[in-house]
C-alpha cells in the first residue's frame, strides 16, 4: 500500500485505512491502497486523471452514513471529500454554494445566522454530507413538504470519470439553456462523477413549529389518517410500528416512553400550525409534544433496532401513499420467518423495512434473498420502488431487476461506459456491469 505520486494530502497507514472499511450498512469493504484528501476540484481532477492512467479504481467517500454500502472500497484508492469546504451564502436569493464536504448539521448551523436552512433532513443529518445527499438523492423526515435533494439542486460543480472539471446548471431560478447533466449526477452514487460543490436552494427557518403524536391500533386506521392529514400540508408525517416503538422504549438513555402502538408523528411549521394541530387532536387519539423531543425519539428508530440482534438491513421501499397500510401488512405476512420492524415516512409512502439479524456475511446474504423475494412482489402488486432515498449501492444491486427492466439497464450501462470508459469510478455500485 502506498500513496500515489501526487501533490495531494494522502494516508496509507493500514491502521488509518481501516476506518473506510465500513459505513452504516451491514456490509464491509476491503482495505484500499490509500486515501486521498483533495482540497478543491482541481486536486480531485488530478487524482482521477492519475487513476485513469494507472487503471486504478476510485471510491468517493463522504460522511460514511450510507445504508447500502455505496462508498465502500474493494481495491484501489478512496477520495475523501471532507476537505471540500468552500461556502458562499446568497441570503436574498436563498441560495448556498457549498463544498461537498460540509456536514448537513454544520451547514445548517451556519445558515441559521441568515435565518435560512437546507431542509433535507435524513436520519443521519449529523454526519451526512452535501456530496453524499446529492449522490443518493436523500430525502428524510421533511420530504413530504420540502422534497428530495433533487428538488434543491440548481447546479453542480463536479469532476468527470476522466478528470475534467465541469459546471452544470444556471444560477437563475428558471433556465431552458442547460442539458440537465447535473440532475443525472443526483442519485448516481458517485458512479458518473465526483461532486465538489453544489448550488442549493434554501428555505426560511420556520418561525413556528408544532407537533403531535397520534396513536392507532391498526395500520389501516393509521393509513386513513395519513391521507386525511396530508390535506393539511404537514411539514413532517412519520410512522413507527409497535416493534420499533418497543425497541426505542428499551433504550436506557431515553426518558420518553411511547405506547406500543402504531404511531404517527406529525409536524406543522406554518402560520396555521396551532389550528391544524387542534383539528387533528379533536379527531384522533393523541397528544401535543415538543417537536425536538419527538424527532429525537423518531431518529433513534434505526439505531435502536440495530441493538435488538446486533445488526439489521434497512430496505427503504416506497409505494403510493394510499397503498401504505396494505404494503405494511404484506411485509409482515411475507417475513414471518424473520424478526421484522417497519417505520418510515408515511407522508410519501416510504417504508423502512428492517430485517433484524446477527452480524455476519451469511446473514446479510440471507437478508438480501428475503428482501428480493418481498420487494419484487411489492413492485408488482403495489407499484413499489426498490429505494425511496437510500440508493442502491452494493446491498440492493440484486434487487434492481425487480423494478428496472433490461432496456433501461442497458441504457444505464451505456451512459456509464460513455462517461467512464475505464470503469474506474465507484465500480460495482448502482449500475450492474
UniProtKB/TrEMBL annotation:
Pfam annotation, one family: FAD-oxidase_C
PROSITE patterns, per the entry: FAD_PCMH
The entry's keywords: FAD, Flavoprotein, Oxidoreductase
GO MF assignments: FAD binding; oxidoreductase activity
FAD-binding PCMH-type domain ranges (all copies): 28-205
Superkingdom of the organism of origin: Archaea
Keyword Oxidoreductase set for record: yes
Required cofactor(s): FAD
Keyword Ribosomal protein: no
Protein name: FAD linked oxidase domain protein
Species, as recorded: Ignicoccus hospitalis (strain KIN4/I / DSM 18386 / JCM 14125)
Amino acid at each position: 500500500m502506498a500513496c500515489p505520486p501526487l501533490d495531494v494530502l494522502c494516508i496509507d497507514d493500514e491502521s488509518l485505512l481501516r476506518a473506510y472499511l465500513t459505513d452504516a450498512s451491514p456490509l464491509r469493504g476491503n482495505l484500499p491502497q490509500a486515501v486521498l484528501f483533495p482540497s478543491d476540484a482541481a486536486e480531485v481532477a488530478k487524482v482521477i486523471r492519475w487513476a485513469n492512467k494507472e487503471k486504478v479504481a476510485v471510491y468517493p467517500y463522504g460522511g460514511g452514513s450510507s445504508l447500502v454500502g455505496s462508498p465502500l472500497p474493494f481495491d484501489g484508492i478512496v477520495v475523501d471529500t471532507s476537505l471540500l469546504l468552500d461556502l458562499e451564502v446568497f441570503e436574498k436569493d436563498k441560495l448556498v454554494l457549498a463544498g461537498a464536504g460540509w456536514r448537513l448539521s454544520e451547514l445548517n448551523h451556519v445558515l441559521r445566522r441568515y435565518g435560512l436552512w437546507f431542509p433535507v433532513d435524513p436520519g443521519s443529518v449529523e454526519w451526512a454530507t452535501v456530496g453524499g445527499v446529492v449522490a443518493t438523492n436523500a430525502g428524510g423526515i421533511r420530504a413530504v413538504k420540502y422534497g428530495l435533494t433533487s428538488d434543491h439542486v440548481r447546479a453542480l460543480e463536479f469532476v468527470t470519470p476522466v478528470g475534467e472539471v465541469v459546471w452544470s446548471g444556471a444560477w437563475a431560478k428558471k433556465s431552458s439553456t442547460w442539458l440537465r447533466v447535473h440532475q443525472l449526477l443526483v442519485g448516481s452514487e458517485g458512479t458518473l462523477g465526483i461532486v465538489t460543490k453544489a448550488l442549493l436552494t434554501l428555505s426560511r427557518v420556520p418561525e413556528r413549529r408544532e407537533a403531535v403524536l397520534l396513536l392507532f391500533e391498526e395500520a389501516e386506521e393509521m393509513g386513513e389518517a395519513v391521507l386525511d392529514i396530508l390535506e393539511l400540508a404537514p411539514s413532517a408525517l412519520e410512522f413507527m410500528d409497535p416493534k420499533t416503538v418497543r425497541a426505542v422504549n428499551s433504550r436506557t438513555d431515553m426518558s420518553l416512553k411511547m405506547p406500543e402502538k402504531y404511531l404517527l408523528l406529525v409536524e406543522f411549521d406554518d402560520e396555521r400550525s396551532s389550528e391544524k394541530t387542534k383539528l387533528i387532536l379533536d379527531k384522533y387519539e393523541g397528544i401535543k409534544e415538543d417537536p425536538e423531543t419527538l424527532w429525537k425519539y423518531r431518529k433513534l428508530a434505526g439505531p435502536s433496532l440495530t441493538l435488538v440482534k446486533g445488526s439489521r438491513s434497512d430496505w427503504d421501499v416506497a409505494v403510493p401513499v394510499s397503498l401504505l397500510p396494505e404494503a405494511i401488512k404484506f411485509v409482515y405476512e411475507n417475513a414471518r420467518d424473520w424478526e421484522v420492524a417497519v417505520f418510515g415516512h408515511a407522508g410519501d409512502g416510504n417504508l423502512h423495512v428492517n430485517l433484524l439479524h446477527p452480524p455476519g456475511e451469511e446473514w446479510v446474504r440471507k437478508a438480501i434473498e428475503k428482501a428480493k423475494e418481498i420487494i419484487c412482489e411489492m413492485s408488482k402488486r403495489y407499484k413499489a420502488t426498490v429505494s425511496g432515498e437510500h440508493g442502491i449501492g452494493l446491498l440492493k444491486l440484486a434487487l434492481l431487476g425487480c423494478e428496472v427492466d433490461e432496456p433501461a439497464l442497458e441504457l444505464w450501462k451505456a451512459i456509464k461506459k460513455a462517461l467512464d470508459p475505464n470503469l474506474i469510478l465507484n465500480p460495482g455500485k448502482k449500475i450492474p456491469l
